[in-house]
Every structure is written in structure tokens, then in C-alpha cells.
Amino acid sequence: MSDPRPNVVRVSDESLVHARGLVKRFGDFAAVDGIDVDVRRGEAFGFLGPNGAGKSSTMRMVGCVSPPSAGVLRILGMDPARSGSRIRARLGVCPQVDNLDPELTVRENLTAYARFFGISRRVARQRAAELLDFVQLSDRASSRVEPLSGGMKRRLTIARSLVNEPEMVLLDEPTTGLDPQARHLVWERLFRLKQQGVTLVLTTHYMDEAEQLCDRLVVMDGGRIVAQGTPRELIERYSTREVVELRFPVPDQGAYGEKLAGVGERLEVLPDRILLYVADGDEAVAEVHRRSLGPSSALVRRSSLEDVFLHLTGRTLVD
């Protein structure tokens, strides 16, 4: 049976991240407001939520670059306040914005970064070759960074985060701004990392990314955890099997809200469409037509994590 307390993630026998009552304040504002988290070795763990939910502030504390304001935090079994440098040496970090050096080549961005960890030049060159092969950039090793595509830069940033052979990699919005093809290639590389036993901790506001990559995740809103579980558990707990998206040829979709009463378990009125949460989408569409409501379009799809977030917070993930 799952833990009924929404703010608690079950403790693992080996938690690489262990937080209890974790708080991060900026003045009177609590960006992170008392969360409990455990990340297990070898899993992909996600923080899902919109901008401003507290995901990046949490990641900065986990990455030992921002001290907690309150609570308990242990990373790799150590206290960041006392062992920050030792922890950082065993972490890989892929920031939200690529901060590669445009004056260096693709290969040099890896070998120069390796020197920060005391890695010899010979080992750095060897690892750079292996990592460029892993992220499929070997043919661009001698190229400058500036002309690379956004997807290539993202893959290079991920490769750089692996130079020190980290036990855990922190990825803040790893595919923001990438086209679908580039996103899928990044997902494939991250999935391969997980298969190799690397623990991944990522933030995202893309529900499909969380479903693709995460073994477990927490949904954050307003600095707090409002739900936790596997993607499938969350969908089953907070949504229905199918969703019907209806669009009507009027500016105010809400005018049709009362006319759809009783169709499905619940409905959500958004500015551009109405969502019906139902067990059988085709039957729901048939009922809409029996009521002669005449939507301009009707789409039946499976429930997603975005529906979970909408149910929990009353907002879509990209609000």
C-alpha cells in the first residue's frame, strides 16, 4: 500500500539523497517549504512542476551550491555543510542553461573541465573520447561550440557532467528548448546512463519527459510536494483511464460546462478547450453528440501526468 502522506517519499535502504523538512528561504519567501525526499541508488527520480514550484532551488541544495535554510539534508551519506567539496567531487551537474566555453573545441570543453577534478591529461583525453562517442559527437570533437545545434550543445553539457564518473547526475530541465528529435536523442542517452547504474535526479515541466525517464517522482507546487509515486501510480490515483478534449466554436468554452454535466467523472474548463475525465472516451463523445452540443473537435487520449497536475493544482504544467 502506498504511503497516504503526500509529502513523504518512502525511505530506501540506500538513499543517495535524504531530506527531511527541507526549507529554502529568500527573505520572507519560502521557495522550498518543508519537503521530505529520498532518492535511491540507481533510479531516475524526478521533480515535476511549473516554473517557480521550487524544483531548481531544491536541486541547488542537493548540488551543494546553496545551503538549506532549515531541515535535514544528507547527500551520499554526508552533510553538505561539512563535506560540500567531497560531495561535489562525486556528483555530475547538468545546469538548466548550457554554460559551455565557446572559445574551446568540443573536446577541449571536456578535457579542460576534467582538470577541475584533478584528472590527468591522459585520462581526460581518454574519457573525452569515450563520452563524445556516448553522446554521438565524435565527429564534432574538433569543432568550436558556437556553431553546434541546441541539441548538440545539450548532449555536450551532459557529457561534461560525466567526466568525473559521478555516482549521481543532477539534470535541471535537461531538454528545455529542444526540438522533438533532439529531445528523444537526449532521453535515449539518459536511459542508457540509468541502465549503467548511474542515479539520475532531474527537474522538468514536461509531463512526457517525466513519464519517459522517471522511475519515481514528486509533484511540486508552491514549494511543497503535493503528490509522489511512480508515473503510473499517480495517473491511476488522480485521474481516469481516458480524457476527452473538446473544443467548441465560441470564445468562452465555459458556456458549455453546465451542458456537459454528468458526462464522465469530472471536467476541467480551460481557455481553449474542455477536458472530460472518463473511463470510456468513445462513449463520452457519443453522449456529447446525443446532447447535440456540436464540438468543432473531439480528441480521445489516455490520461497523463499533466492531468494529474491539473487535478492537484488547478493549473497546467506550463502555466
TrEMBL record:
It holds the Pfam family ABC_tran. One of its GO terms (cellular component) is plasma membrane. One of its GO terms (molecular function) is ATP hydrolysis activity. Residues 17-247 form the ABC transporter domain. Gene3D superfamilies: P-loop containing nucleotide triphosphate hydrolases. It comes from the Bacteria. Keywords: Antibiotic resistance, ATP-binding, Cell membrane, Membrane, Nucleotide-binding, Translocase, Transport. It is a peripheral membrane protein. The keyword Transport applies. GO terms for biological process: response to antibiotic. It is found in: Cell membrane. Belongs to the ABC transporter superfamily. This is ABC transporter.
